[in-house]
Amino acid sequence: MFPISRLSERNADATYGPVGGFSYGVTSDIFVGLSAKMLSRESLVHQFTVREFVEKQDTLDKYITDELRKSSSAFGVDAGVIYKFAQDSRFRPSVGLSAMNIGDLNFGDAGKIPMTINAGVSANPQIPYFRSLVLGMDYVDVANNYSQDKDMWKRLRYGGELQLFDILPAEMSVRAGMYEGSPTLGADLRLLTFMVSYVKYSEEVGAYAGQDKDERQIVQVTFGW
Description:
Order of helices and strands: EEEHHEEEEEEHEEEEE
Radius of gyration: 22 Å
Number of strands: 14
Number of helices: 3
Strand content: over 45%
Helix content: under 10%
Structural class: mainly beta
């Protein structure tokens, strides 16, 4: 007889679909936004055993796609509000609140993306020599709807963007901060219709910040006018 020990575990999903939205200035200080999305999701969450691989070796692809893979669609709505106050002060602060996936995105057998309430603060202080500086801090999922993840430091994100210059032929910005307990770095450079962007960050795949970070680097090149 073959043992029923675990040989491999897979936990993967792909979510895709169109998203549309708009924002509106209620007053000169208050702005609201609303978006809608129709998303499709394909999910595979399974622990394979030695017996499965032997018994399904001739039809493994069909077994995965027809029996183990789960597919479904869901409609979702997001909403948010930003309040800019004391705009005559040196720091020109703002506060924001958003609700993502209102009512949850329920994909049936393919899983669920719970609704999250997110809050943030930012400042846009006036500084000499450079064009602008934006400082921000966000706390994601204030109500702890992600039951499997309650670590405060993983939900806290903060950082800043310094725009060095923005003139007709060129523009450059640099960014730095903390995301899910790990540092992030980034930069944008535009020369006429050519733009290159770079970002380095870590996605925390563990239950708490610093447990099991997955470091990523992205370079994006864009042409446009």
